[in-house]
Amino acid sequence: MRKSKTGSLKQQYSRAEPVKNRVIRLARELKERTKELRCMYAISEVCERRGISLEEMLQGIVELLPASFQYPELACARLVSHAGVFRTAGFLQTRYRQRAPLIVNGRRAGALEVCYLRKSQHGAGALFLNAERKMLYTIAERLGKVIELKNAERELKTAHKKLQSLLRSVENSREEERRRIAHELHDELGHALMAIKIDLRGLRGSLPDDEVISDKTRKMDSVIDTTIRNLRRIAWELRPILLDEFGLQAAISALAKDFEGRYGIRCAVRICARAGQLEKPVALTLYRVVQELLTNVARHAMATKVSLALNSAGAGLALIFRDNGKGIPESAVSGKKTLGLLGIRERLYGCGGTLSIQGRRNRGTCVSISIPLRAAKEAK
Ligand SMILES: Nc1ncnc2c1ncn2[C@@H]1O[C@H](COP(=O)(O)OP(=O)(O)O)[C@@H](O)[C@H]1O
Ligand SMILES: [Mg+2]
User: Fold this and answer.
1) 66 and 107 Cβ atoms separated by less than 8 Å
2) Nearest CA to ligand 1 atom 10
3) What is the atom index within ligand 1 of the atom nearest the CA of 339?
4) How do the domains of the chain map onto residue ranges?
5) Which of 24, 81, 85, 155 could be cross-linked to 110 through a Cys-Cys bond (beta carbons 3.0 to 4.6 Å apart)?
6) Up-side HSE of residue 260: CA atoms within 13 Å toward CB?
7) 302-324 pLDDT, tens per residue?
8) Whose CA is nearest to atom 20 of ligand 1?
9) Ligand 1: which of 338, 356, 362 to mutate, judged by most atoms within 8 Å of the beta carbon?
């Protein structure tokens, strides 16, 4: 059986074309396919290059094309697209041309073409091989997809930037409003209460010496004192004056001290010197984040200790905030309705920062935050 098959193959060969010619033809075809394959690989490599712009990618691909055609020394290539026209050096549109349409989002958006500067003197067969035509169409199709992808990527980046700047402007106006209310509270109400307090003191001196009246006025005086203290605290929480005047280190240290005094939870603070050089919006972001994290510890953690470290990390800052409480549940970390954490995320997003929260049952919570310092300039 086998023998007869071999025999018949032999006969076929001798009838169709001499073996030697066939081998030469196959070798030539193999060489062409290898060139095409190499070109496809090189194109893939260009497409996957990190950080490459669309224009660089298209130019790179156009330059790779001629080498995969039968007569590379005579070939030149050009891509006409919405993204621009890209061509090999010395491109010339001739009548020895192969062309494939460029389709982007279902619409014709240009063409990819390869031209021979002149007809080759060596080749007797077709100027463009079938496989070459197919390859050009495949590459044009792939280019269409790449352009779609890059366009989408660009739109996403623009939307991301817009959202960041929107969040920053919302945050800025919120802070501005807080500053205004804090000043009104402090200057208007605070001064009015102080005036009442002084008047009351004057009044007490001129009142008849009556036990009931003096007890009442003493109580009124003490209520005024408490109200003034509360007012100062509220104004201070609304607008940390220390942050404006002495920087992040002083403001966070004061926050921690106040926290310790109020809740009896020890709070160790370590802040690197670089924090003193932060731009105002970034310092304010970090301050507000720490404020919310401390409030969360007081409200939810049942902790006895907190540690907070703000250090330089590469081109940015890293904040590690830990407590030794009951540990935040996973559902709260990934929950969408946790407004305090959402606020932290929004603030960080506005300045390009990241947040990671890990809770371990009865072994505390660790919050890690990173802020790139280039964000400082953009956040203005
Ligand atoms: N340090 C913490 N330890 C334990 N649980 C926490 C801690 N911080 C937050 N949580 C949990 O995460 C939830 C979401 O926090 P947050 O978004 O700040 O909302 P809120 O404080 O208003 O409840 C809290 O309700 C609480 O259950
Ligand atoms: Mg909270």
Assistant:
1) no
2) 328
3) 17
4) 2-156, 245-380
5) 81
6) 13
7) 999 999 999 998 889 999 999 99
8) 340
9) 338
Kindly identify the ligand whose nearest atom is closest to the C-alpha of 335.
Answer: 1
Q: How far is the CA of 255 from the centre of ligand 2 (A)?
A: 16
Residue type, 345: R
Please name the residue whose Cα sits nearest to atom 5 of ligand 1.
328
DSSP state of 364: -
Residues 338-354: what's their mean pLDDT? 91
Query: Mapping DSSP to helix (H, G, I), strand (E, B) and coil, where does residue 79 land?
Result: strand
Q: Cβ neighbours of residue 242 under 8 Å, at least 6 residues apart? A: 250, 251, 254
Q: Shortest CA distance to 376 belongs to which of 284, 239, 293, 250?
A: 284
Identify residue 177 by its one-letter amino acid code.
E
User: pLDDT, tens digit, for every residue of 268-307?
Assistant: 999 998 888 888 889 999 999 999 999 999 999 999 999 9
Say which CATH topology domain 2-156 has.
Answer: Beta-Lactamase (3.30.450)
Class of the domain covering 245-380: alpha beta
Question: In which band, very low, low, confident or very high, does the pLDDT at 29 lie, cut at 50, 70 and 90?
Answer: confident
Phi, psi of 353 (to 5 degrees): -90, 170
